Amino acid sequence: MSRLRCTSFASLCRRRLHSLTCLHLQRDFFDISVGFFRDCYSRETPQQTTIPDPAELVMSKDDLMVQALPRLQLSSLDMKAILELSVSMLETNLTQQKELRLTKDGFPDSRTWREVQRKEGIRVFKEFQSQNSLPSGDSATCMRAGFAHPEESGMPSLLMLGTIAGNLNDVMYASIATSTDSMRARSKFIQDGVVNSKVLCCVESPSSDDPFHTLNVTWRYYSLSEPRDYTCIEATGLVPNDYGELVGFHLVHSLGFAQLPVFKSHGVERANMSVCSFFRQKTPTLVECYTRGYFDFHSTNEMLNNISLHTISTQWLSMARYVECAQMKKLVWWMRMRTGRDSFASSSQSSSSTSSGGIAMIGQNSRPRIQSGSRCRVCSRSFGGFLRTSPRACACCAEWVCKRCCVKKQVCVMSSHNRSKVNDKKLIFCAQCIAEGSKSDAALILREELMGTRTSYSSTRRTTSTMETLETE
Domains, the chain, ranges and CATH? Predict the structure, then answer.
């Protein structure tokens, strides 16, 4: 009996030893396998990081067109002719605005205009066209030659009327674009349908006395029902009306140049347009908007032309975001003034516009160290405790704020790797910086940008605080 017990005990021990040996072998095999794959992964990781993204190596069609467009070299006589053309077009559009008949409700005659789009306080109308008033073959020639009366050529016309909440300086600050980067950032933010753009020549630049005055030759590429591009003169500024009020304008008029190539090989048709917008401070909080535009698509397909007009009318509704665009530009300027040009720009060479690397740097490197007893900059709420309020750093002032006192705002910046690409990021701003940015004068900020001074951040803060003191008194 004892021998059977010993034999069974020995066999049990052998079985357990065998199972333990198999288990150790499995574990050793697993450890070897993990080590093997870990070594393989560690060897492959540096190679993967050094290989660039193939999507970045392939240039898009609009980037190829931008590179093919040369910098325009215009003589003094050409610049004078462009200036005279812009003045003539501005006077023509001012007269046309005065002659527009509106109803008591502020709408155009329904027998002539049909409403096609509306958003908030903005409405877009399309003019009825008879068969005998269709655009003739000479309309494009007239527009390229600087025809001062495009309304007489029978081209399709759109009209926009309405109001925008804000002030005139903010609307003009969003309208002005002195560089290619600023044009692309504005289009990315307001979504006006411009796929790519470029400033080809600067005829007149803004000054400290007239910061909103610009006159440039620009190129725009739209991806509509049929891809089209435009070469235009683009002018902005302020002019007095018959009642002595300052009226802001934004003129875009097609003009042909023999030095500029066309891109029919890319499937892009060179079209023509003449669009002029006027802005007037109607009330202390509302800006009255007026836009009239004529378009020649070089197409006799009425259905495609109507589709293009409908798309353009939708793009015109982006004007409702002009004030938001101005606020975004103010916040970006405040960040640049606080951090400096070098710290705001990315590691690569950057122009006066912002870069994605610089904004990421603001959110990380400029954060202050949180200490015990730290409180929110706005409401003075202490961090931690039972509710465990998590602090967040403001991208503008780099101070800690609580969740209740911060807002995420969209900021459009130029990519540091691809200068033709605009990245949009949502950054955290405290309520105090947003309020100070909205109250700051856009004309003053634009003057400071032109001067390139570093003391403007503190001076603007003093101006804002002085205005707040005067308002309370």
Answer: 61-319 (3.30.530.20), 329-472 (no CATH)
